[in-house]
Amino acid sequence: MKATESNFLKLLEGRKQFIIPIYQRTYSWTLEQCEQLWDDICWAAEKDSVAGHFIGSIVYIEKGLYQVTSVPQLMVIDGQQRLTTIFLLLAVLGKTLMERNEEAEVTRKKINNYYLFNSEETGELRYKLLLTKRDKDTLNFLLEDRKADLSSERIVETYKFFERQVRKYTNLDLLYRGLGKLIIVDIALDRNYDNPQLIFESLNSKGLDLSQADLIRNYILMKLDKDEQEELYNNYWYKMEDSFRNSEVPDIFDRFIRDYLTVKTGR
């Protein structure tokens, strides 16, 4: 394990791709959490005496995937909610800079090429952040500023929240400087020496509560290679999860999993 204090925007620079594995929960930050992050960024932007503002950690497995690609791929174990939220803010900032067409230190092209895209790549390797199933298409459409069926409501909600906030912000260079003050602990794991499952459970016990179904899914899938993960998730788990998605009964999927395991094990 390597843990270093890093500037968040610097972490995004260069050819790389952060991949959210399928066993991770979908994007789930509330508007209250987004508003707190926005307030922190604005506070840092407007305080000349503040050199940096700590926002948490990003934990990933270096060479986390087994296939070899032209872009280094980092499998994110913790910090995906924060990562996704700031990607959405950067996308909105870039779009607003283009719409205003003002003289500024930062441009949409710089934001896209430095932080959001691997500009020399095509296909999925072009995106510096690759989310899971439902969230992936929604985020990619928003980053590309394309109109589409935006099925991930939380991601769309966060994007629209930042649109409202950024459009009211008069000095976009100042906002960009606030983003440039964000500090994280960059924790890189080695698959050969570190136990991602134990680290994941320890870190997530301190964040948003994981459901019983989340924990079981993670336990089953995390130890498998990527192809096996995708096969089991797409062919079995996702179909179950999706069938309960629109139920009005709270925690219905958790109850189903718990009852099924009770019947199968007798405990």
Structural description of this entry:
This protein is α/β, with parallel strands linked by helices. The protein folds into 2 domains: 2-209, no CATH class; 211-267, no CATH class. It is built from 11 helices and 6 strands. The two termini are 38 Å apart. The model has no long low-confidence stretch (mean pLDDT 86).
Strand tally: 6
- Globally, the shape reads globular
Strand order of the largest sheet: 1-6-3-4-2-5
Fraction in beta strands: 5-15%
Largest sheet: number of strands, sense, barrel closure: 6 strands, mixed
Distance between the termini: 38 Å
Mean pLDDT: 86
Structural class: alpha/beta
Number of distinct helices: 11
How would you spell out the order of helices and strands?
A: EHEHEEHHEHHHEHHHH
How are the secondary structure elements laid out?
Elements (H helix, E strand, L loop, with lengths): L1 E6 H5 L4 E3 L11 H16 L6 E10 L10 E6 L1 H21 L7 H9 L12 E2 L2 H11 L9 H16 L3 H8 L2 E9 L5 H9 L7 H10 L4 H18 L8 H14 L2
Helix pairs in contact: 2-6, 2-7, 3-4, 3-6
Features:
single chain; 267 residues; alpha/beta; six-stranded mixed beta sheet; 6 strands; globular
Can you summarize this structure?
The protein has about 270 residues and is α/β, with parallel strands linked by helices.
